[in-house]
Amino acid sequence: MLAQAGGYDLILACRNEAKGNEAVEKLKSKVPDVSASFMKLDLASLKSIHEFVDAFHATGKPLHVLINNAGLACDFKDTTVNHTEDGFELTFGTNHLGHFLLTNLLIEDLKQTASKDGEARVVIVSSELHDPKTVNHRMRNDIEFPFEFDNLQFEKAETYNGLRAYGNSKLANVFFMHELARRVEGSGVTATALNPGFIPDTELLRGASGWSKFMLRNVLYHVLRLFNVTRTLDHGSGMIFDLATKPEYKGVTGKYFNDYQETEPSEESRDTEKAKKLWDVSADLVKYQAAKDLRV
């Protein structure tokens, strides 16, 4: 959608170089005059994030919109804790800590753009699974779990399952959005979060087992469509496009959206003290103390 709208210099940041370049070529075949390029970024690696930011800065390009859209879900029934190369629980490390570091390393770029052009935007893709009340009763037993800082990465391994880890990381996304919006208020940089809905046609389930992928994409997908649970790729990306570009969202910050509507996120996600604490804990984990000093 961004490519078709025109006027944007798109950087597709992803960990798989072959797929990234393929995506760029597909864009150019559909929109020949699009300005798009691939840059390698693995959000499960702090080293890769720093290298990406260095490479971006070397281009000398301004940054108007940062879309934090990477997401990973392990098999929802998996009870084995997996870790990133830096030792973080894989889902939390990728879905939250990776975005946290990336955004903080690029925040000055966004502030510079806002000072020149009047605005810059950060869009964070979360999920309705950040709120246990949105899921059915059977799943709720798996996901309903307090956000505990002494068990943030499932140090108590017996409490882990893939669904809970995913929900935990998506709750962290909403905490992050709220605290980022608070810290940059008045700078012209805005932060919003959204639930794009369950979209089977993405790489979200790359950590799931083959059987789980088959069931979700070929069986449950059709059942869930009957209950208006799943979304098409166009529908989900449309919400992201609107928050990233539409004039009516200029100045909108600290808000959560679901199905194109501003919605209250979970009660827990609106806990200001937890959001502040998660920010500081995240800064310590990714070893980027400058994040603690972020203010307008």
TrEMBL record:
Molecular functions per Gene Ontology? oxidoreductase activity
On the tree of life, the source organism's domain of life is: Eukaryota
**Pfam family name, one:** adh_short
Please tell me whether the keyword Oxidoreductase is annotated for this protein: yes
Which segments of the protein form a coiled coil according to its record?
Answer: none
> Per UniProt, which keywords does this protein have?
Oxidoreductase
Listed PANTHER family? RETINOL DEHYDROGENASE (PTHR24320), RETINOL DEHYDROGENASE 11 (PTHR24320:SF283)
For this chain, the family text in UniProt reads: Belongs to the short-chain dehydrogenases/reductases (SDR) family.
Q: What is this protein called?
A: Putative short-chain dehydrogenase TIC 32, chloroplastic
